[in-house]
Amino acid sequence: MEYSQAQPAGRTSSPSRQIERHATALDYASLVKASRRLDPAATSQKLRIALLADAATQQLVPLLRTLFHQEGIDAQVYEGPFDGIRLEALDADSGLYRFQPEFVVILNSVQALRAAFGRRSGNAEAFLENTARDMTAVWDAIQSRCPATILQSNFVAPYERHFGNFDQKVAASFSSVVAALNGRIRDAAGGRSAVLVNDVEAVASWIGRRDWFDDRFWDAAKSFCALEHLPAVARNIVEMAMASRGRVMKCVVLDLDNTLWGGVIGDDGVDGIVLNAHGDGEGFYRFQSFLRELRRRGILLAVCSKNEMSNALAPFERHPDMLLRREDITVFVANWKDKAENIRAIRDTLNIGFDSMVFLDDNPFERNLVRGVLPEVIVPELPEDPADYVRAVSELNLFETTSFSAEDLQRADLYRAEAERREAAAAYGSAEEFLRSLDMRMVVARFDPYHLPRIAQLIQRSNQFNLTTHRYTEAECEALMKNEAVLPLYAKLSDRLGDHGLIGVIVLEPAGDELVIRDWLMSCRVLARGVEQQLMNLVVEHARERGLARIRGEYIRTAKNQMVQDFFAGFGFTRAAGDADHSHWLLDAAAYRPRETFILHAAEMATAA
Amino acid sequence: MADTWQHMQHVFRDIFDDEALDLQPETTAAGVEGWDSLTHIDLIVALEREFKIKFTTAEVTRLKNVGELAALIDKKLPVRP
User: Which one of A63, A200, A231, A308 has the fewest beta carbons within 10 angstroms of its own beta carbon?
Assistant: First the structure.
């Protein structure tokens, strides 16, 4: 099993990496040419990706390698034999499994489906059932033999309509069968965290089927689509893989004047700004609606405006057509400082990485300033016409993710509760008094199926408080859960102001007379609460109960985890080996003195391992 | 014709990543390193883009040598006044 060592020192992607995603940068010939000059030394991560398809994959390889390289990743690509999806998946000794991929791309073409549909012996319904069954059987086979994440394409809608519009009313029509199959793929993948749907149909329909297909090259070489559009397929795959590796956007920072409404609030007043559900202010209204949906799915919204605070707040409080309300905005900054400085302050409040922030501002000056000062922040161009804002931002596919949990929905509330806690803390004389007043409760338990999505998500997202940064996928977490030789634990915390949810993951493994801490990561939301002290107490207690003499810790430096470089030293571990980049630490279990915390009801650690 | 030849040479050098590639009318796929069925598609697409023409599937699959290809391109180019 290979785990990616994510979060490299110095991700090599350029400041404008998101801008490069634009269609103009996706020229087939240029990407192929670039693939011949890739310098693996310029990358900081490796990735193994396998391609299984019923179309030609050779043309996809240079595109993937170039696009991954732009993300700082040296991609090794395995190509299964042509039309060998089932063959490779069902044979335990196939090249696919020997390759040990982190990702398996399964690309099914509607061209091959059309040919199979034409050859069907039974009725269309049987064809549909058999095809759907074959696809899930392939997933089952792969999932049972390797921990890879599967990126299964759906089918591009065909252009022919044998019944015309009446196709829609005939379940046996080819277009209906394709639509039904896409529904099956969606439903079946929904129940499997290891299977992600590569929505090629969305990519193709955006471009348009008339341009998408070039049947000459299907006939001559089984090309998946017109070559000029193949980069869009590759890009989609790369974006899914990047999200799977933890690159997700967490916060959108918004300008106000001419971004959320037309006009300047300080000059025009609440009654004078352009914002309405119909007409010339509808573009802004639609944009707010789009942002509100993002907030609903767990993306934090922040405001960064050059305004007097009272003016900036006025539309949120009084404008009848404002869709975004003050409570939708997690951090609200309005002053006359430069925007880069303000974004830095927003980042510090939220404790997230600059590379998980998107800044949207209609003003090119502000955009360029932020790009220059904070190159990691994603700063898309906004079109001149606000009517095009939603389309322009959507086209960049910035909000790719690989999981969605109940906690995503609560995230904005969690952060707001955190702001309240800070206020409360300020009201208490000492930190101790404050912590005691919080009435914190923690639950620590072995991984279970219910919590797997959130566990995997935390593992993908935690950069700062993360000692080894092994980016386990949900499938790998499931494997850990079932592995009796290890003790994979999660920790949940709540207090009187709210529920923090699942905030920590520790993977322990007994080896000889040692208890090895393979992974230890925590959400930065709960720092300075005594959580890590409480957890270390439990870890040591566990070692003692099992008669293990020592605890072994490991620290692997990344670009972002300096915060925990002295973690083990702080608990009295001594460095046994290694250097500042990668070190091993040992603690004598008998000599450890439990740390005092104010976490009241820590549940007993689960048994096993 | 000479003009066509020059443009073709440019496209071939680009696709096969070989600035020294010297096209001859009798040059065939077998005579150029890396000219396989897939590079052939890349080549056809690049030529279509360069000359703003379109080949049929039959032409794509049956072209025998570079001379034949040049003649075909010339035939497809709009007649200049």
Answer: A308
